[in-house]
Amino acid sequence: MSRPADPVRSLLAEHGELCRRAVDPLEIAAGLEAGGVDEATVARCRHRDLFSLAEELHARAPRTPADAPPVDPVRAVGSTRGSRLRPALPLLPGAVCAGGLWLAHRLPPEAATGRAALGVACAVLTLLAVLVVLARRSPPGAAGLLALPPVGFALVGDAALGELLVGPQADTGSPAGAALLLALSVAPIAWCGDAFTGRALALLRAPRLREFTAAARALLLRTCLLLTLGLAAPAALLWLARPPWAPLGGEGALATAALAWPLGLAALLVRHGQRALAAGGLALVGGVELTALALASAGWLPGCGALAEPVAALVAARGVAAVPLLACAAGGCWLLVGAAVALPRASAHRPVPPRPVSLHAPHDRWDHGTGARPARSRAHPSANSPARATAPAVAAPFTCEEHDTR
């Protein structure tokens, strides 16, 4: 009677590249989880959980030691200096924006062109700072473009909405104050993202995936609380200081700080490969704000005054800042739920590297020394090849006694 096929060996052949490159079993478990290996597959391999299966795959995977490239001492010193300065780089957008606004305020009234140019430069700097913090570790994709409408609304949306609606509106501040607050918010967003990423990588040493998931959820909660405190600090500082070159009212500071919170969550999701979730949350924020502007604009058309009544009632009851607050609350809830589902997974922190694509398979190359063609492995059989029985380059399966001792 022939022995039954080893399911672990089949799984090892299917995920051979992942198992060979993995540095620990948890990286294999993350790759299997991302590849759709479920509990039924784990039970068919006679294991109690995914991590124990990953341990066996890690033990059985053949590995070839890679030669480490030589380290250039000059580059090593430069990287050390860069690592010391890197934590202070997120402060640069806020410092440059504050300097530009202060310089524009110091210009004489006759230099209106210079003031306008500096104001536009600070607004562009704010947009670039938001894009940079979203693309700090990976390309943001559509999330980078979808972040522009909410930032634009934070700069000029409140004033535009107040002009479209009939009646006196509260002063929410100038676009200069909103631009400065967003530029200052880049630092806490970047710092909280770095802290979460570094701590999550340290949590990957947990012996079980269940322990890692619980610890990652607690870490995400602490990061969100820290992000909230970090974003509230510059808003409170600007509201209390009230510099004449960047005036910002209480409602404007609250609305701008509320926008920085979903931007921080979106940057965290983009950093860990969840670009679709980040884009969806930012699209929700921009969609609510643009819908409010569209309804307020439609109220000026003949016979369409009823369209602007919901927005007018909300603004009359809670102020102009109620619209961005409502939009940021909806988008922030979307992003928070998505982060709570996606980021506690180990696969979000150890992405599986893509397989290299070669135009010529290894078994199609001739041996130039002997002039003979190498034998094909079982992973690439051929109908007319006599080498069909050649064993693949994987470890031999465990016996029942060896498996029980493990």
Question: Can you tell me the residue ranges where pLDDT is under 50 for at least 5 consecutive residues?
Answer: 65-80, 351-406
What is the string of SSEs from the N terminus onward? HHHHHHHHHHHHHHHHH
The helix content is 55-70%
The biggest sheet, with number of strands, parallel, antiparallel or mixed sense and barrel status, is:
none
Portion in beta strands: under 5%
- By DSSP (H or I, 4+ residues per run), the number of helices equals 17
- Find the structural class using helix and strand composition: mainly alpha
Biased composition (Low complexity): 380-397
Keywords: Membrane, Transmembrane, Transmembrane helix
Protein name: Integral membrane protein
Region (Disordered): 351-406
Short description:
The protein has helices at 7-14, 16-21, 25-34, 39-44, 50-60, 73-85, 91-106, 112-134, 142-146, 148-164, 175-203, 209-241, 250-271, 275-298, 309-318, 322-342, 400-405.
Brief descriptors of the model:
406 residues; mainly alpha; 2 domains; 17 helices; 64% helix; elongated
Describe this structure in words.
The protein is mainly alpha-helical. The chain folds into two domains: 64 residues; 261 residues, no CATH class. It contains 17 helices and no strands. The longest helix is centred in the middle third of the chain and has 33 residues. The C terminus is likely disordered. Keywords: Membrane, Transmembrane, Transmembrane helix. It comes from Streptomyces mimosae. This is Integral membrane protein.
